[in-house]
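Table S2 (continued). Query chain:
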Amino acid sequence: MEKFEIHILGCGSALPTTKHFASSQVVNIREKLFMIDCGEGAQLQLRKSKLKFSRLNHIFISHLHGDHCFGLMGLISTFSMLGRTADLHIHAPKELEKLLLPQLHFFCKGMGYKVIFHTIDTQQQTCIYEDRSVIVYSIPLQHRIPCIGFLFTEKPTPNHIRRDMIDFYQIPICELNRIKNGADYQLPDGTYIPNDRLTIPSDPPRKYAYCSDTVYNRKIIEQIRDVDLLFHEATFAESELARAKETLHTTASQAGRIAREAQVKQLLIGHFSARYDEESTLLKEAKSVFPNTILAKENLCVRL
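Corresponding output:
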């Protein structure tokens, strides 16, 4: 099975703590690295994760609150000092380019690579990135400023060849790609060999959804339905429901309800408020609604 991993670099919220770094993750799909948000300390955590800087070419920023983007300038500068030459693509709300360009001109003159900005429409679901192995969609969220989540959808892979049957029917190598992609095979005597006798179905495509920051928002349920893993913010416990509504954040039990209604396979909660010394209360609340819930923590790697 091809690699599909989520690496947590930081899972705290706006106020710094000695326990958590600000929001940042790396999604590793078949050794291509995609960063989601880039709070302070993201490059330090990227070092600790032992992921290769050179394989990170796309960064997705959910919104322009500092705990989700203050680490960008440092990371861009470090890439330059490491001698990077490959373009770096940043997918974000439109205001980020205007804010970041003056800093790039001042701090990063003479860089050996280009930073290319891609504007995301925060009001509607759109395809914002696609390559041979994955499609990334935006998920409109509801927060104090324009904000989006991200849905990473793996593309289907061809069927697996049954070598024993290929040898048995003496099928030439030049036919294998057609067979992998679903074609039957006709023997010289005119007999058709059905594809399901020659192949084993590939693993079903996997999906990962990232939703942070947002008020409790049932509108996202259809878009994230049946995903293999949902990361959803759980900034507060239910005792702070009024505060969650005021700041347009979500409680742990609300995150559990979203996961349950969307029938996701697993829920990963994060973006914890600094008021909690430890998150057992948040985990307990989420698990009471959706039992297959785990806590995010720095350097956690979840494999799909």
